[in-house]
Amino acid sequence: MRELKNEGKRIVLTNGCFDLIHAGHTRLLSMARGMGDILIAALNTDDSIRRLKGEKRPILDQKQRGLILSSFSSVDYVIFFDEDTPEEIIREMKPDVLVKGGEYAMDEVVGRQKVWDSGGEVTIVTPHAGHSTTNLIKEILNRFVQ
Hints:
Largest sheet: 5 strands, parallel
CATH architecture: 3-Layer(aba) Sandwich
CATH class: Alpha Beta
Oligomer: single chain
Strand order of the largest sheet: 3-2-1-4-5
CATH topology: Rossmann fold
């Protein structure tokens, strides 16, 4: 990370579960990539997701989610965090830009103050309306489970 910053690269960080990739995720990643030189996607580990979303999640394990995200040309690096929030990673990385999806209000963005304190920006990207992993799971259940 230090090497990239020393080279003058603008580091963008986004984070989340990225459980079932959908159009909202792809839009967020594409827009985030346009905000800097390097995009890092921080993913919750499987254990972290279970604590946050319940025992039935994640649908895809962290290895699959990491492989999928790393295949996107917009994503330069994928890292995992096991905590419930990415606050420690944000504190350590001090990204130039922290990007979150539009389902968050600014006062809900974990690590925002640490980014601001280090001179960075926090940006909220509005995803495609109605696109979420939870909605996708509900749609699958409605269509295929009686």
